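User: Please fill in residues for this 120-position structure.
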């Protein structure tokens, strides 16, 4: 079972209700087991964090980074988050919003390659 901060539950719901365009695009390609039957959750609380997308069975987290992720402070927070998730056994894949717009097929291939089970 994944531990999480109960205080993040309402924030998680709010984030699901107002997903960004790149999140919506990626979600349309990974939801409902479209990649190797892997089930992803969006805006999933994990510890004190909320993962953009999480496949709990695969221990795989996908993070989409928009413009707010490029400051030194944001990079440090992202690194801290990635270290925490890694310490819990998760593989963290980070993509930029630009990756989603310009090279979605490569993004999907990287996700495919990181899903170990659920052969189709």
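Assistant: Residues filled in for all 120 positions:
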């Amino acid at each position: 079972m994944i531990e999480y901060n109960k205080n993040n539950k309402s924030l998680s719901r709010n984030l699901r209700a107002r997903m960004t365009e790149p999140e919506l695009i990626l979600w349309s390609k990974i939801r409902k087991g479209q990649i190797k039957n892997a089930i992803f959750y969006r805006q999933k609380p994990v510890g004190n964090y909320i993962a953009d997308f999480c496949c709990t069975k695969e221990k795989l987290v996908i993070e989409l980074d928009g413009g707010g992720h490029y400051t030194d402070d944001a990079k440090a927070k992202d690194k801290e988050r990635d270290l925490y998730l890694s310490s819990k056994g998760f593989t963290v894949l980070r993509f930029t919003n630009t990756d989603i717009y310009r090279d979605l097929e490569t993004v999907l291939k990287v996700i495919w390659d990181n899903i170990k089970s659920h052969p189709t």
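For context: Strands lie at 41-46, 49-55, 60-65, 91-96.
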